[in-house]
Design a protein that fits this description.
The complex is a heterodimer.
Chain A (H helix, E strand, L loop, with lengths): L12 E9 L5 H11 L5 H13 L15 H6 L6 E6 L3 E9 L5 H9 L3 E7 L6 H12 L4 E7 L8 H15 L6 E6 L23 H7 L13 E2 L2 E3 L12 E5 L10 E5 L4 E8 L13 E6 L10 E3 L6 E12 L10 E6 L2 E15 L4 E3 L10 E14 L10 E5 L6 E7 L1
Chain B lengths: L7 H19 L3 E4 L4 H14 L7 E6 L5 H14 L3 E5 H7 L15 H12 L4 E3 L16 E4 L27 E4 L7 H11 L10 E8 L2 E4 L13 E7 L9 E4 L5 H10 L17 H7 L4
Parallel strand pairs in B: 1-2, 1-4, 2-3, 4-6
Antiparallel strand pairs in B: 5-6, 7-8, 7-9, 8-10, 9-10
Helix pairs in contact in B: 1-2, 6-7
Classes of the chains: A alpha+beta, B alpha/beta.
Chain lengths: ~425, ~300
């Protein structure tokens, strides 16, 4: 692979992807392979894992060791927590959210998927589509990931069989028709030997599609964000109160979470409903002509209106839902189950409110995708549809429309733990 | 249709600015841990961007082992002056005098581990509820699992197996009295990103990052710079080399590398071709396989 040159880095974009899988399906080996073949592993890291492999009596270097960060994980040979990995090619910088695949770690998979543009789902060529495959796909879909790459791994163990590849592909397509993932691709690989990961396989000449690395470098993600519905949650009010030219400066700082804002645009502020015009969009490098996701900027307005953290700036003809009754899909992340009628703190963009869990509508069996209406106990790793009542209006969009204004977390007011992730329906 | 696209450096910048603002909104007494290294200089730059045209609404805190490169201290004082920041210094020396820290002995003696003691004492003294650190997940494998908002209990401990899930860009900074958070706004930056961004933005750095002549001693596969804090072992000798620092920390444990890189482009070229991680030059990480994780659990950054 080419090294990244300084000429190229100003044009590089960023792809975040998640890999879900268990110890057995070769996930850590695949990540090790991507890092190794893209020259993202350094000599001292390689030395360290060579030594560990030797100490454990392994014959060759175990690339999986590269990704096992915590002591307990190295001891038990499992991945407990989400770990983030980085590599770059001349085209893109990549952030991998490496998450454990076992059912008891659903919460970690959800965490990793929440910020991902793409998910790699690993299937063992010997076993085909199994429950875990469906679970991972369901979570990718639930968290709004638009691109899934199904890597059928360990092709070396099925004699590089095209027939086996096609069968798994057909099985996956049948089951995934129930999901709503617009872009699904299939690649036969051997993470251990490197076939079709970075370099084309010489063992599978029947496959004429791209390698995994080529796919990661070229998948189109620019249009995945919402550039239509303008949303600007106010995060912080900037008032320098200095004696210089900025004495009267009053700016609203935040990250654009949807649409495009320009100076001169008519805006409306929620919850007050006051309207004004954008005077300027400021940054330390000077004013900008437009602001779009995910830019962090500071907006100044023509009129002096009272705005504080938690308010939402939108357009008069395109506003989010303002509601105290929110319908959510939640994934539960705490050992302490959801308390019916229990009180929680809900965080949404820069807003925070009290909330009561009014009703559990149904629970999902995430292996079969069936709805369960007879068992409504929501515990760790469960996925359920829940109705919340909040203490004040929240300005939401459907998660399907906007992954930022459609997302909430629930916090237990006593333990302060984050107990659930919620996607607005 | 116009294509709305931010390059990876602008995306990382925006994520970090968002975190700075979030902390200013969610916490009462945030402090920014400033070491004088490039990562903390980058942090100050990003914090300025987050609150411009207002000043950075928090104080810088330097945990000073007394074993710094003198150039680092000069640079620190000039930066504080230039941007009108507030600075507090926690001296490891004071912890030693108080008897809460005990100096290590031997030829590899370092005050690096003692920093954690002075750090926790300083955080308590200033009643800090959020301390920004320049840690990056690509530095070391225990850091790969660190959260942006990383909870510390009243004993300053990190519990890596029981971390709060961190979803989207929704950060939960809720805590009990006596607890605090370590905040890592540049978690997602790699060494390469940091250098490229420093170049893109024209950020000033201490001159020890660039090539210079210096007396060094070869020890455990790295070169240590000559200073009053290093005693030669038998058979060791000072020799003059053309070197630069890849990271800036204590003179007792931060290795310098042979390099003729005199410009930012040279450094970026060097980083791109590097075969050893940045922390590979630090003896403190080499003490055991889980060295970083153990130090972090004890309150280290």
């Amino acid at each position: 692979m080419e090294q990244v040159t300084d000429k190229a880095y100003l044009d590089m974009d960023l792809l975040r992807f998640t890999t879900a899988g268990s110890v057995d399906d070769g996930k850590s080996t695949l990540i090790g392979r991507l890092l190794y073949d893209s020259k993202s592993i350094f000599e001292d890291q390689l030395e360290a894992i060579e030594e560990t492999s030797k100490n454990r009596g392994a014959e060759k270097v175990d690339l999986a060791l590269l990704t096992d960060g915590l002591k307990a994980e190295r001891e038990q040979g499992i991945t407990i927590d989400v770990a983030y990995r980085y590599f770059a090619t001349p085209k893109r910088k990549f952030i991998i959210a490496d998450t454990p695949g076992h059912i008891q770690y659903t919460r970690n998979m959800v965490t990793g998927a929440s910020t991902a543009n793409l998910a790699i789902i690993l299937v063992d060529a010997r076993h085909g589509v199994i429950e875990q495959t469906m679970r991972h796909s369901f979570i990718a879909n639930l968290l709004g990931i638009k691109h899934v790459v199904v890597c059928i791994n360990k092709m070396d163990l099925v004699d590089w069989s095209e027939e086996q590849f096609e069968k798994i592909k057909a099985d996956y397509k049948e089951f995934s028709s129930k999901l709503d993932i617009p872009d699904i691709r299939f690649i036969p690989i051997s993470a251990l030997l490197g076939d079709n990961v970075v370099d084309r396989s010489e063992n599978m000449t029947w496959y004429d599609g791209p390698t995994l690395m080529y796919t990661l470098e070229n998948v189109q993600i620019a249009s995945d964000r919402n550039f239509v519905d303008a949303r600007f949650p106010v995060q912080y009010v900037i008032r320098p109160q200095t004696d210089d030219e900025y004495r009267d400066f009053r700016g609203f700082a935040g990250m654009v979470e949807g649409g495009v804002f320009k100076p001169g645009d008519d805006i409306v502020v929620l919850p007050s409903g006051f309207s004004s015009k954008i005077k300027s969009i400021e940054t330390m490098d000077g004013p900008v002509e437009e602001a779009f996701p995910p830019m962090s900027v500071t907006i100044t307005l023509e009129d002096e209106i009272d705005i504080s953290r938690g308010d939402m700036i939108a357009k008069p003809n395109n506003q989010p839902n303002s509601t105290q009754d929110i319908d959510l899909m939640v994934t539960w992340m705490s050992n302490k189950p959801l308390q019916p009628r229990g009180k929680y703190i809900v965080r949404h963009t820069s807003q925070e409110a009290q909330a009561i869990a009014k009703e559990v509508v149904y629970k999902m069996d995430i292996n079969t995708l069936h709805k369960k209406e007879d068992d409504l106990n929501v515990g760790l790793n469960d996925v359920a549809r829940v109705r919340l009542r909040t203490s004040k209006p929240i300005f939401t969009d459907a998660y399907k429309k906007n992954r930022a204004t459609g997302a909430v977390i629930l916090i237990d007011p006593f333990s302060n733990e984050t107990v659930a992730a919620g996607m607005v329906l | 249709m116009t294509s709305y696209n931010l390059n990876h450096l602008k995306q990382l910048e925006s994520e970090s600015i968002h975190i700075f603002r979030e902390v200013a909104a969610q916490f009462e007494r945030p402090y920014l841990l400033f070491s004088g290294g490039k990562d903390s200089i980058l942090m100050v730059h990003l914090a300025r961007k987050a609150f411009w045209p207002a000043k950075i609404p928090f104080t810088l805190l330097h945990i000073d082992t007394g074993h710094n490169f003198p150039e680092t201290i000069e640079f620190r004082d000039a930066l504080v002056e230039k941007y009108g920041c507030k600075l507090e210094v926690g001296l490891v020396e004071d912890s030693i005098k108080r008897g809460t820290a005990v100096e290590e002995k031997g030829p590899n003696a370092s005050r690096n581990a003692l920093q954690s003691i002075t750090l926790t004492e300083s955080l308590e003294h200033f009643k800090v509820d959020a301390a920004f650190g320049g840690g990056r997940r690509d530095e070391e494998k225990a850091r790969a699992k660190e959260r942006m908002f990383s909870h510390r209990d009243e004993f300053n401990q990190w519990d890596p197996k029981n971390q709060r899930p961190e979803l989207w860009n929704l950060y939960n900074g809720k805590k009990q009295i006596g607890e605090h958070f370590r905040i890592f706004p540049i978690s997602n930056w790699t060494e390469m990103d940091v250098w490229q961004y420093i170049k893109m933005e024209g950020i000033e750095l201490p001159n020890i990052y660039f090539t210079h002549k210096r007396e060094v001693v070869a020890r455990d596969g790295i070169f240590l710079a000559k200073s009053p804090y290093i005693n030669l072992r038998e058979g060791e000798k000072w020799e003059e080399k053309i070197v630069r620092c890849r990271t800036v920390g204590d003179m007792t444990c931060t290795g310098v590398v042979e390099s003729t890189a005199s410009t930012m482009d040279d450094i970026i070229g060097e980083v791109a071709a590097a075969r050893v991680t940045e922390r590979g030059g630090r003896t403190d990480d080499k003490r055991s396989e889980a060295a970083m994780e153990e130090r972090k659990m004890q309150g280290y950054f």
